[in-house]
C-alpha cells in the first residue's frame, strides 16, 4: 500500500467526536483542548473546544487562522486539526466537487472549504455548540474602514505598530530561533527583535526545491554575517516523493505548497524552541499578487470575470488527467461560479486583492505552516497578525501598496544602518528539475502499480508521461505538475479505505 507516512501524523492528533443515538449522547477523544496561544486577552492565534457531558462547545479567534476542522452529520459532530484523523474516526469522506474545482485551479481552498463535503474549516470568530444539533455562528471577517492617511504617515504608523506588536511578542525567557528568508517579512521581524535587545540562538534557512533557486540561502547568509548571527542552512532530500506524500497528509489535502518546508519542520521539532513567522506581511504590506493583470481584473468589479481570470491551470491537461465523470463534476464553470461568490465578498474592501488572498490563501494555505506543520513547537509568534497592526495594513488602499515598495520603505526608514542589504532576486539561478522529476516519476509509478486503480486519476493519460520520464531521465514542460497532482489525487482517492482498513 502507498505509505501514509509516520503513523503519529494521524493517530496522535487531538480530536473529539460526539454522537447521538437511541441510547443517548456519547463522546470520545479529548474533553477539552486549547490550540495555539493568546497574546493578551484576545489577540494571538488560538482555538479551543470543551465537552461538559451534555454539549460540545468550541471557538476561535478573529482570523480563523488555526486549522481546526469540524465534521457534522445528523447523528454527530467531530473536531480536530487533522482532516485524516476525522476520516479515520468515521467522518464521511464524500468529496466536495465545487471546492475541488477551485482548488485544482488555484492551489488552495477558499472560505471554509476542504476536499470533503461534510468537513469544514471553522470560520473566523466562530462559536460552535453541539448538543445533539449543531449550532455554528461566525462574527465574520475583520474589516477595518479605509485609511485616510497619506503614504508617508502610513509608513510611520506601520513602523510604530510593528514595533508594538513585536514588543507584545518578545521572547520571555530562554532561546528562540529565527527562520530567515531573503525577503522582507522575516527580515523586518529579526531587525526589530535585535533593536529591542533580543538575539536568536540561530537563524535557519531552508533550501527550495528546484526549479526555484537558492537566492534565499545566499541573501539570508549575507544578513546573518552582517549581524553576527549563527546561520544554519537546511538542504532538501534528493527525492521529493516522500515529502510530497507526507505533506498531503499533514496539510489535510488543503495545500499544493509546503513540501519544501518539511525539512525545517523536522529540524525545528527537534529543537523545540519558540520561532517567529512572517505570515501575512507580504499580502498586507508588500503588494503580493497586485500585478498589473490582477489590478485590472479587480478593477472590473465583476466577480465572475475576476474568478475566471484568477484560474490559470492547463484546462486541457486537467481534463485528460481526471476520469471523465470527475472532470465533468469539477469543470471550470463550476469553479468560476463557486469562486465568484467568494470574490464578491472582498470587492468593497480598501484593497480587494489583499483581502481576497489574506482570507483565503493566507488563512487556508499559508497558515498550515505555523499552525499545522509547526504545531509541536512551544510558540509560533506571528507579529503581522497583531490586531492593531492588521487593522492598519488592511485599511490601506490598493494604490498605496501596488508598487510593492511600501514594506521595503518601512524597513529602510526604521533601520537605516541596514538599508543597504539586498533582497532575494526570485528570477536568479533557476536550476533544471529534470533529475528530481525523474526520481519522483519512478516512485509514483511504483506506488500506482502496487495498489488498486485510483478512482481520481486517469491512467491512460498519466502512464505514457511517467514511462517517458522513466525512459529518458528527462521531463517535458509541465510534467512536474502532472506528477504532483496525480499523487495528490491518488492519495485523496485512497484516504477513506486506507484509514479505515
Can you tell me about this structure?
There is one protein chain. This protein is 44% helix and 15% strand. With 501 residues, it is α+β, with helices and mostly antiparallel strands. It has three domains: 8-138, no CATH class; 151-288 and 347-418, 3-Layer(aba) Sandwich (Rossmann fold), CATH 3.40.50.620; 434-500, no CATH class. A five-stranded antiparallel β-sheet has the order 2-1-7-6-8. A five-stranded antiparallel β-sheet has the order 3-4-5-9-10, with no helix packed on it. It has a three-stranded parallel β-sheet with strand order 11-12-13. Helix 6 (215-227) links the parallel strand 12 and strand 13. Mean pLDDT is 92; it is low at 1-7.
Using only C-alpha atoms, the radius of gyration works out to 23 Å
Q: What number of structural domains do the residues give?
A: 3
Q: What is the average of the pLDDT values? A: 92
- What is the number of helical segments per DSSP (H or I, 4+ residues)? 22
Portion of residues in helices? 40-55%
State the end-to-end CA separation: 11 Å
- CATH H-level homologous superfamily name of the largest domain: HUPs
Main CATH class of the largest domain: Alpha Beta
Q: Shape from CA axes?
A: globular
Class per helix and strand makeup: alpha+beta
Widest beta sheet: strand line-up: 2-1-7-6-8
Largest sheet: 5 strands, antiparallel
| Fold-level CATH name of the largest domain | Rossmann fold
Number of strands: 15
Which band does the percent of strand residues land in? Answer: 5-15%
- Which stretches are poorly predicted, pLDDT < 50 over at least 5 residues? 1-7
CATH architecture of the largest domain: 3-Layer(aba) Sandwich
Amino acid at each position: 500500500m502507498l505509505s501514509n507516512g509516520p503513523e503519529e501524523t494521524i493517530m496522535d492528533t487531538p480530536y473529539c467526536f460526539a454522537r447521538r443515538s437511541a441510547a443517548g449522547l456519547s463522546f470520545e477523544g479529548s474533553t477539552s483542548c486549547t490550540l495555539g496561544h493568546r497574546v493578551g486577552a484576545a489577540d494571538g492565534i488560538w482555538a479551543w473546544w470543551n465537552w461538559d457531558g451534555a454539549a460540545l462547545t468550541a471557538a476561535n479567534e478573529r482570523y480563523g487562522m488555526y486549522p481546526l476542522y469540524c465534521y457534522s452529520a445528523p447523528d454527530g459532530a467531530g473536531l480536530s486539526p487533522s482532516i485524516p484523523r476525522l476520516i479515520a474516526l468515521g467522518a464521511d469522506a464524500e468529496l466536495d466537487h465545487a471546492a475541488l474545482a477551485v482548488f485544482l485551479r488555484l492551489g488552495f481552498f477558499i472560505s471554509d472549504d476542504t476536499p470533503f463535503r461534510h468537513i469544514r474549516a471553522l470560520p473566523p470568530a466562530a462559536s460552535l455548540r453541539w448538543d445533539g444539533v449543531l449550532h455554528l455562528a461566525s462574527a465574520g471577517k475583520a474589516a477595518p474602514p479605509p485609511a485616510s492617511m497619506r503614504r508617508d504617515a502610513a509608513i510611520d504608523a506601520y513602523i510604530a505598530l510593528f514595533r508594538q506588536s513585536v514588543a507584545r511578542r518578545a521572547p520571555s525567557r530562554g532561546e528562540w530561533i529565527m527562520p530567515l528568508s531573503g525577503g522582507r517579512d522575516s527580515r523586518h521581524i529579526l531587525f526589530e527583535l535585535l533593536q529591542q535587545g533580543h538575539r536568536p540562538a540561530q537563524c535557519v534557512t531552508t533550501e527550495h526545491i528546484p526549479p526555484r533557486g537558492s537566492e534565499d540561502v545566499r541573501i539570508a547568509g549575507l544578513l546573518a554575517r552582517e549581524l553576527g548571527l549563527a546561520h544554519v542552512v537546511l538542504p532538501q532530500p534528493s527525492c521529493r516523493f516522500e515529502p510530497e506524500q507526507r505533506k498531503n497528509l499533514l496539510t489535510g489535502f488543503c495545500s499544493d505548497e509546503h513540501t519544501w518546508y518539511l525539512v525545517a519542520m523536522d529540524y525545528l521539532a527537534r529543537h523545540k524552541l519558540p520561532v517567529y513567522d512572517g505570515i501575512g506581511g507580504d499580502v498586507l504590506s508588500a503588494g503580493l499578487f497586485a500585478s498589473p493583470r490582477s489590478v485590472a481584473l479587480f478593477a472590473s468589479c465583476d466577480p465572475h470575470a475576476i474568478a475566471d481570470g484568477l484560474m490559470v491551470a492547463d484546462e486541457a491537461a486537467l481534463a485528460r488527467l481526471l476520469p471523465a465523470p470527475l472532470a465533468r463534476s469539477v469543470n471550470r464553470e463550476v469553479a468560476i461560479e463557486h469562486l465568484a461568490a467568494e470574490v464578491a465578498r472582498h470587492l468593497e474592501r480598501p484593497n480587494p486583492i489583499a483581502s481576497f488572498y489574506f482570507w483565503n490563501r493566507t488563512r487556508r494555505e499559508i497558515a498550515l505552516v505555523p499552525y499545522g506543520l509547526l504545531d509541536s513547537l512551544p510558540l509560533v509568534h506571528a507579529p503581522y497578525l497583531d490586531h492593531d497592526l492588521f487593522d492598519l495594513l488592511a485599511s490601506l488602499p490598493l494604490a498605496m501598496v501596488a508598487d510593492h515598495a511600501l514594506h521595503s520603505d518601512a524597513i529602510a526608514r526604521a533601520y537605516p544602518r541596514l538599508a543597504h542589504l539586498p533582497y532575494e532576486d526570485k528570477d536568479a539561478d533557476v536550476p533544471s528539475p529534470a533529475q528530481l522529476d525523474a526520481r519522483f516519476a519512478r516512485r509514483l509509478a511504483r506506488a500506482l502499480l502496487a495498489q488498486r486503480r485510483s478512482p481520481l486519476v486517469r491512467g491512460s493519460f498519466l502512464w505514457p508521461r511517467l514511462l517517458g520520464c522513466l525512459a529518458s531521465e528527462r521531463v517535458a514542460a509541465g510534467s512536474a505538475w502532472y506528477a504532483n497532482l496525480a499523487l495528490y489525487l491518488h492519495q485523496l482517492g485512497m484516504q477513506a479505505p486506507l484509514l479505515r482498513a
